Amino acid sequence: MLTVKVIKNGSSVVVATEGVIDTETAPQLGAALLELDYSDLTLTLDFDKTKYITSAGLRVLLIARKKLSDDTMRIVNANDDIAEVFKVTGFSNILNYSLKKQDTDDCHMSFKALLKKRAGDGTAYVFAGREYTWDDVDRLSQIVADDLAKLGVKKGSHVGICSPNSINWIITFFAVQKLGAIALLVNYGLKPDEVATLAEIGDITHLCYGAIPGITDFGIYSSALLDGRSAVEYMYDIGIGVDFSARLSEYDAVKDKYSEMYHSDDPSVVIFTSGSTGKPKAVLSSSFNLLNSVKAISIECNFTKEDRVCAFLPLFHVFGFSSCIGIGLLYGCVSYIPTSSKPAALIELIRDRKCTVFNTVPTMFLAMVQQPGFTPESLSSLRVSVLGGSATSESQMTMLRSLLPGNHFCNIYGMSENAVISMTRYEDTFEHVTQTVGRRVDGIEIEIRNHATGEKIPDGDPGEIFIRSKEMIVCYYRLPVELQPLDDEGWLATGDLGVILPDGYLKLVGRAKDLIIRGGENISPGEVADAVAQLPGVADVKVLGVPHEVLGEEVAAAILLKDGETFDAEAAKQTLSGKLARYKIPEYFVVMDRFPLLGSGKIDAINLKKEVLAKLNKG
What we know:
By secondary structure, the chain is of the alpha/beta class. It is about 30% helix and about 25% strand.
């Protein structure tokens, strides 16, 4: 099939073709060219979207060329395959043509191609005190790719990676990419049955596993995955006890294998949603999707090759993947992978390695600065930290800024379906940083819609956040079309409630599913939480709805107190009466020792609600 478009501008004519010019389609191009007036013609043939040309097409070009000169007929945007046809047929001496400019933007490269480009750039990762260059990662991943290929992994295979962060995780990921397979990133903190559920959802046939916390009997673990419930057929050990470096001598035997390159838009990664409010979904993405999100962050954070990244966040999470894989690939900087996620160990790593970038969730940063041995000097090398996963209160941000005045804290709003949607900027006010998630990043469109009707509502009114961008999710793997998140215009419903302020900043006010409906009144948990967070002694708060026989739901606030503080519920209600309508004031205040967390660092909403209901005897 061929599409021919003729654009006339006086005596200058551009003929743009799309498709293949062969025996079947060449007459179509010939007919379009015959209709032109050649008396005073300057002809440009734009082959930007033309894939190939055969001898039949060359005859059409020759006929046109006989009527024109080198100066009045030219071909632009010819790809390498078309240029090769011109050369072998001698038409390179007849036609005036130029090659299509190759896109040098790294975001338009596959993970495989970008790793190849990085080879030779020096140190890529440091793990357990050992340095690994980009060459090391390239060679070792080639060896692992050969292992996986012998187990049946090929282009399009679904390979799960379920392991704590390690250099072996990184090597395995690139091995999967070299084969054109899809890497499905699995939370290593899940129980065997939960991993089996993800394997079933994502059609995982091969599971690469590391040391799984809490698993002492691997036989039980493997039997849960190999019992036929899921598609898992093979399990491949990538635990820290496996030293791939000891196999470097095998590289020469496999270096010329698996040379096929892939497109940046090819599906290459699946990141599972957390399932904090329901069954996890498999978010299918490409390298283009994920790397462009990293680039959007870097515009604000100014990442360079000189940066040293403390890559703490779990790699199975979109935020961790972007921080540990994406930043290093795009900018060639060194990433330090901690062997422990304990706050004291992270402080030691940042201090000793002079890390400049530490992206994390607010709860981890707060835990670090509250360590007995913490001093501001120990984290003084940090220049930027992107905070995501949950909000940071005014008091928390005030403390972090006072302790680390040389570090720039950015708030980010994103999701598995689109890693970054909005973020705060360097020049933003304190109010912007503590009360909003910034402005939309380049390439993102945001609309606020009525949650019930789906109609767009004016800025300043709260509603559900919808987004649209080229970096967005490909789809939810294997879900029926009615459950796919995109509407017929390409907008994605985030499930989050927000409001666009007059200055264009986005403020989150809760989850659509978390709306509390009390006696017919809709209550935003985020609005109530903001007010409760300002009460004396409150360190953190999560507001949720609990069952009520008459009203349907009542408002409850689960709170964490600062060290040594006590809480008076009646006094709190009195204070809140000056800030919130009566129906929004929590009926229950539940003091917690800690909030249950998911592996991603987000609050586990399902288990938190169970704990609150148990404390209220409403379970």
